[in-house]
Amino acid sequence: MRTPRRFLPSLSLLQAFEATARLNSVTMAAQELSLTQSAVSRQIRALEEQIGTALFHREKQSLRLTHGGAAYAREVREALARISQASMNLRANPHGGTLSLAILPTFGTRWLAPRLPAFLAQHPGITINLVTRLRPIDFAAEAVDAAIQFGRADWPGGRVLRLMGEQVVPACAPDLAARFGFATVADLPRAPLLHLTSRPDAWERYLEHHGIDPGQIHGMLFDQFATVAQAAASGLGVALLPTFLIEDEIARGRLVCPVGLPMRSKQAYHLCWPADHDDHPPLSRFRDWLVRETRAFEAASP
């Protein structure tokens, strides 16, 4: 079904409206767009006439978005961002395809990034753009083709494919381990325990898994694995970390596992994507490659 033209305003009208709504000023919008104030005002009025509704309350020398105008501005801003991103992607890779992928920061830098050259060598026509996200992706609001997330396979609005699980282990600086002389899991709460905000009950689950009553656990909070791992290596406390993310620190002796008792996480890493991207060629090729890589990694892990 073809969309009526009245609901497809020109980019110039939408840009004038978006800039004015964002800057809350016709003058500043005109400066940003290299236009005159009167030209911007005419474009906004033309847009209002075309869609048949007022977008601003006009009060003497000021403008204020209507309720509908504010909602429209958000959607127009997202649409313009998508068009801009699509244009940049095409210019960067006119003969191949582009995959915009949201990744968890530490997983992306420690596990995925070292393996990406192999994928790109196998698929030289594909460009991958990476953005980091700590929270689950809303595909309706963000211009990404897919995301790698950790948790349960229940993200709404997309397809979900399990990639791999993980096991976590207590880790700390060698000096801290020597100072506290950990002998069993029950000794760990004597030291400061470091927590990740995205997994606030991780220590409780770990201690209970090994038959220890966790009681009341307090400690410093961190929002990323890389930061909490650095804090542990600096001697601030004991962190509960995925083994595959701290291999380098263990090998270099910056971190030690004082009791050496891991726990398999109940959750897993997943690749998720919007249903309408099922047949997006770069995503299909990346998905197939990623499944092979994660399956081989899990098979080789203890």
Task: Give a quick precis of the structure.
This protein has helices at residues 11-23, 26-33, 37-51, 67-92, 105-112, 116-122, 174-180, 202-209, 225-233, 247-251, 281-300, and strands spanning 56-59, 62-65, 97-103, 126-132, 146-151, 159-164, 167-171, 193-196, 221-222, 238-242, 263-264, 268-273. It has 302 residues and is of the alpha/beta class. Helix 2 packs across helix 3.
Kindly describe this structure.
42% of the residues lie in helices and 19% in strands. The protein has helices spanning 11-23, 26-33, 37-51, 67-92, 105-112, 116-122, 174-180, 202-209, 225-233, 247-251, 281-300; strands at 56-59, 62-65, 97-103, 126-132, 146-151, 159-164, 167-171, 193-196, 221-222, 238-242, 263-264, 268-273. It is an alpha/beta fold and 302 residues long. The N and C termini lie far apart (55 Å).
Order of helices and strands: HHHEEHEHHEEEEHEHEHEHEEH
Number of strands: 12
Termini Cα gap = 55 Å
User: DSSP helix count?
Assistant: 11
Low-confidence stretches: none
Shape category: elongated
Structural class: alpha/beta
- Taken as a percent bin, the fraction of beta residues is 15-25%
Helix content: 40-55%
Radius of gyration over all CA atoms, rounded: 26 Å
Largest sheet, spatial ordering of strands: 4-3-5-12-6
| Mean pLDDT score | 89
- Strand count, sense and closure of the main sheet? 5 strands, mixed
